[in-house]
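User: I'm putting together notes for a lab meeting next week and I want to include a structural view of one of the chains we've been expressing. I don't have a solved structure, so I'd like a prediction I can at least talk through. The sequence is below, exactly as it appears in our construct file.
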Amino acid sequence: MHQSRTLPSSVALRFVLIIGIANLFADMTYEGARSVTGAFLGSLGASAAVVGFTAGFGELMGYGLRSAAGYLSDRTGRYWLLTIVGYVINMLAVPGLALAGDWPLAAVLIVAERTGRAIRKPATEAMLSFAGKNIGTGWVFGLNEALDQAGATLGPLVVSLVLYLTGGYRTGFAVLLAPALLTIIVVCAARFFFPEPQRLESRHGMQAQGFPKAYWLYLLAGCCIAAGFADFALIAYHFERTASIAVSLIPVFYSVAMATGAVGALLLGKLFDRVGLPVLVVAIALSSLFAPLVFWGSTWIALLGMVLWGIGMGAQESLFKAMIARLIAAQKRSTAFGIYDTAFGVAWFLGSALMGVLYAHSLATVIVLSVFLQLASLPFLVTAARVRRPG
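Assistant: Thanks for the context. Below is the predicted structure for the 391-residue chain, given as C-alpha cells.
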C-alpha cells in the first residue's frame, strides 16, 4: 500500500499551536464557568448535597466516558468528527447556563459540559501525539498544557471582573459565549488546514498490538497521584473555613496555581524530551509537598503550596501523556489515552471523596495520605522505565 509522506516539523508545530489556541479559549470558557457554578447552583436553590453530587457526577462522566470515546476514535479513525462534536457540546453548554431558570436545568448543562470534554479529549490527544515524533512528545504536550493553563488562568479572572462590575452570574456566563465561539471557529479552522493529522507521524515502527506492561505501570502511577492530589474545591473550603486566606484572594491563589502550571508544563515538557523520566520524578516529589503547605501554612506559605500544586497539575497533564505517546502505537493511542484518563478520573474522585470525609476528623491524616499516595507512584514509574518496551 502507498504510504503518505510524513509532514515536516514546521507543519507539526503549527498544528500543535492551533490546537493549543483552541484549548486556551476552551479552558477560558469552562474554567471561568467552573469558578462560580457551585455558587450559581446555590443561588437557584440547590442544596449543598445537590451541588456536590452535580460536581462529582460531572467529573465522573467527564473521565468515565473517555475510554469509550478513545476506543471509538481508534476504531473508526474519525478523530476530527469526535473532536468537533465534543468541542461543540463542551463549549455551548457554558453560555447556556445564562438561560437556565432553575437548578435542574443548570445541573444538566454542567454535566453536559463535562460530557463534551470527555468525547473530544482522547481524539484530540491522539492527534497531538502524532506531532510528537517530529518535535518531541514532551514539548507537544507541555506546550498544549501551557496554553490550556493560560486559559484556565484568564477565565476565572474574567468572570470575577464581570461579577465585580455587574454582580450577575448570568452575565458572566453570557460573556463566556465569546471564547466558546472562538474555540469552535479555531477547531474548525484546524480541521480545514490539517485534515489528516495522522500524516504528522510515520506509521513505520510500533505495531498496533496489546498494551505493554509499562503502560499499566504508568496507569497505576497516575492513579496514585490522582488519589492523593487534593482537589482545589477542598483546598478552597479549607481556606474559607479556617480564614487562613482572605476570601477575595482564593480565586487569585487558583490563578497563580494555573499560571505556575502553564510555565511548568513548558519547562518540564522541554526537559522531558532531553532527560526523560527523572524530570517527572522530581516534579512529583516537589508537588507532593503542597499538602502540608496549603493546609498548615499561613498566607505566603499556602501560596507556595499552591505553586507546588500547580507544578503537579502541569506535570500530570503533560508528562504522563508524553510517556504514553512514546509507548503506544499510533493506531491504539486514543484508546490508551481514554483508558488512562478514565482510571485517573475514578482515582481522583475516590481520593477526593475520602479526603473530604477524613477532613472532618483529622487534617493531619489528610496531609499524610496526600503525600504518601503521591510518593507511592514513584516505584511504579521506576519499574515501568525498566520494563518499558523500546519504540
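A couple of points you could mention at the meeting. The mean pLDDT is 88. Residues 9-196+211-387 form a domain with the Growth Hormone; Chain: A; fold (CATH 1.20.1250.20).

User: Perfect, that's what I needed.
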